[in-house]
Amino acid sequence: MKFAILFVIFLSGVSSLPNVEEELHAHWRNYKSIHEKSYETDEEEQMRKDLWHANRKFIDNHNKLYEAGVVTYTLAQNHLSDRTEEELRSLRNFKGNSKTLPGKVHTLSGNKIPESIDWRTVGGINPIRDQSECGACWTFSAVASLEFQYWNMTKSLISLSEEQLLSCMEGKSCKSGGVMSEAYDYLKTHKLQTRDSYPYTTSSQKCCYDEEKGVLAGVDSYVSIPEGCEDLLTDAVAHHGVISVAMNSLEPSFVNYSGGIYAPNTTLCDPKGIDHGIAIVGYGTDAKDGDFYWVRNSWGTKWGMGGYFKIARNRNNTCGIATLASYPIIKN
């Protein structure tokens, strides 16, 4: 009798295995459909599925910690969840450090700043963009701040060209990486065209700059925020709008971030290891989880919260968010 019961239990366990596999494959098909994925060979698809599955387990485990109140942010699968580490590294091509910014230094304005601000609700910020497979994050960071400064001066919102910076700055390409201050230096002697007149192609093509089509007259100078000074960074956001920054984005959870205040263990997110250009568009305070910045990424709207994320503020320079911050002063 005991043997018969054990045999039935064994059979039920075995019979459930195909159901688990079928359910997993159904989720995989759904993922491919949502993100319009297709692969050249069966071998590549299996490799992508394995990466996706590993991410799925990582996300599930992390979100259990969120539900238990251990962490302050959630994860979810997105269009990057089937990428290799090498492919992900190509998206993070910021090449700078705290010594890169010799420009003017921001000082406290002395004026009271609001408890929170979100420049997206005011104007001067275009829809989220996608840098695609190109390591051009630094151009998107610079352009976001330039567009806001132009809007703040003229009250006209225009879309400026990342491609011009990528193709016309000496030595730059999708693989070379760059720094926002280099873009500002280039614009001291060049105008910047619109996206319509110089569209983003990710091809790092031959420079086709046409000065007559330049809309932004250029940059007079730029202002840097001293490394790690978050009171000055918050003051700059309050008084000067969108600020170009960089961060350490190597912590595995960042790729699959979906909501909440991003605040990973600092040992996994060294403030000195900045590798990804982004732009701060606001700040605030959550009653439960504390101070944060609103940050604009360039990985499309399917990433994060419609392309944006919140990162901890006033918490020992989380992931280097205040390590290399700057904003341009544009020409009239």
UniProtKB/TrEMBL annotation:
SMART domains: Inhibitor_I29 (SM00848), Pept_C1 (SM00645). InterPro entries: Papain-like_cys_pep_sf (IPR038765), Pept_cys_AS (IPR000169), Pept_his_AS (IPR025660), Peptidase_C1A (IPR013128), Peptidase_C1A_C (IPR000668), Peptidase_C1A_papain-like (IPR039417), Prot_inhib_I29 (IPR013201). Gene3D superfamilies: Cysteine proteinases. Residues 28-88 form the Cathepsin propeptide inhibitor domain. One of its GO terms (biological process) is proteolysis. Keywords: Disulfide bond, Hydrolase, Protease, Signal, Thiol protease, Zymogen. It comes from the Eukaryota. The keyword Ligase does not apply. Residues 113-329 form the Peptidase C1A papain C-terminal domain. It holds the Pfam family Peptidase_C1. Belongs to the peptidase C1 family. This is Uncharacterized protein. It comes from Cichlidogyrus casuarinus.
